[in-house]
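User: I'm preparing a small set of examples for a lab meeting where we compare how different chains pack in three dimensions. I only have the primary sequence for this one, and I'd like the structure in token form so I can line it up with the others. Please keep the answer compact; I'll paste it straight into my notes.
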Amino acid sequence: MKRIIIISITVFSLIFIISIGYIITSIEKSTSTLDKLIVLHQVEILREHLLIQIKRVQADLNLKNTRYARSVDTVVSDVANLQNVADTCFDCHHDEEVTQKLKGISSQIEEYKNALSRVFTIRANVARLDREEDIAFGIGAELIKQVDEMIALTTSKLEKRTQATLEKITEAKAILYFFLAFGPLLTIVLSYYLISSFTKPIKKLMHATTRLREGDLDHRIEGLKDEFGEVARSFNEMSGALKEHFTKIQRVEQGIVLGELAAGLAHEIKNPLTGVKGAIELISQEASIAQEDREMLLKAIEDVMRIEALMKDLMNFAKPPKPQYTTADINSILRATVSFALKHPSFSPGNGKTITLVNHLDENLPKTKADPQQLRQIFLNLLLNAAEEMPGGGTLRLETSYDAPSRQIQIRISDTGKGIPENFMDKIFQPFFTTKAKGTGLGLAIIRRLIEQHEGEISVANNVSGGAAFTIRLPANGHAE
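Assistant: Understood. Below is the structure token output for the 481-residue chain.
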């Protein structure tokens, strides 16, 4: 989220800076262009003024010797103004071509002045006076023509330049208006995006907390990224931990209820059951009992013994004995348990059944605090279960390892049997759940209770190649004595 905010602010700042820079540059360019146009128009005015002055002097010449003739002082003043206007034209900066034309006009103006001087000073020679007047008039007419042509040419170029400048100013205004309109729009879009980037994840988190408060511990947050993704992962981990914690609490509560129930049942059933068993044994020993009846009585004794075993398992699950902690070597306990289990009928090689034992034990496994007797009970039950799952033989693999980051000892017992159906995975550790015809469904439940007393955990998964694998994790530091 930080990255998105930084990128958004950076983009907005760049657009803002570019907009301001463009506006400032446009204003400066437009101002500079307008200044140049003003100067050019001033030059144009000066040239028209020059043309007017030439025509005025030419008019003075035309009015000579008429009753509308102007005084000599007026003519001299007009000629002086003509010279001043002509000199002013050279004050502005021009390109080389225009400068040469102005020099030519200036030279002709000088000739025009001289011709006019001769016209107004000659008195006696009438023929020469007429000739000088013609010369002066011709020079004036030529000056008017040249200045008029220059003004016409300059006016055409100036109009084009003015039009181009106005078009550029119009374009700049349009872009400026675009930036002025786009800026607030961009701000709104960016604000909406940032607000959505905050509100949508927050809504998901709020919805998830509501579901959690309502008791839905299986709800998970998906699709969030960045910092919100980290919060979502923490929330999901918390939900998983809460579910596991509540499950453990539920099992503890079930254990307490079962413990009270088992204690009550044991008290109510044990003594009468012992009496029933003794009475049946005595009756079965009577010589007068027929063999068929004696077999029925022996069957009843077996059923009573089965009930006693069930009551014993129930008591072990509900109130398992408190572990007697001591320094334990997991590998040694596992080897001793395997040696004992190999003598059990489940590992008998009869009927062509062969179970191959494969050991991968970590010899550098650290020792821990544990109850060796309870560990033997755990390992033996898992080994016998694995052997029963391979009625036609197979491979039994034993592995131990140490996970340094979690400081846990791992014991893995796997077989190559049929495996566990996926719909049974969450049930096999529940009390009284069994798939065996003569099972009580308390074996794995007792195993988990014993492991949890050691502050460990047990899990099960199917192997890719077939069979199931039980993994036990025990703390390497063990339990305080």
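A couple of notes for your slides: The chain has a mean pLDDT of 79. The first strand starts at residue 326 and ends at 328.

User: Perfect, thanks.
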